[in-house]
């Protein structure tokens, strides 16, 4: 099995992951409701995000947190997202960049969950 090396690998990783997410009984409805018919646009954004994060190709600008801030999600949703993400990577890739993808996804899920809980508990809306 090879490591994540280029844009084609990023596209494969992202497409296969979100195909699983869309069909997942637990988190699929949340993603499908939020994204609706804009999947192509979302996937393009994710290609750029992961290229920037993993391959040091500056293909994404923006803040990934605000679109998630108002979603009806909690730690169990992030846990399921990570379960699907990790399994998806492990099925297709092996190496330091694949490991980095899993590590960064875990840190992002942890941070997003923390921020969402913080704003809920403070009864405040996050800055967008």
Provide structural commentary:
It comes from Flavobacterium saliperosum S13. It is a single chain. With 128 residues, the chain is mainly alpha-helical. The protein has a single domain, classed as Globins (Globin-like). It contains six helices and no strands. It has helices at residues 7-23, 28-35, 39-55, 66-69, 75-92, 96-121. Helix 1 packs across helix 2, helix 1 packs across helix 3 and helix 1 crosses helix 5 (75-92). 16% of the residues are buried.
Strand residue percentage:
under 5%
Work out the count of structural domains.
Answer: 1
Largest sheet: none
Q: Please tell me how large the radius of gyration is.
A: 15 Å
- Indicate the overall shape: globular
- Which CATH architecture would you pick? Orthogonal Bundle
The total of beta strands comes to 0
User: What is the first-to-last residue Cα distance?
Assistant: 40 Å
Calculate the mean pLDDT score and round it. 91
Poorly predicted sequence stretches spanning 5 or more consecutive residues: none
Protein name: Hemoglobin
Organism: Flavobacterium saliperosum S13
Keywords: Heme, Iron, Metal-binding, Transport
Concise structural overview:
By secondary structure, the protein is mostly helical. Helix content is 70%, strand content 0%.
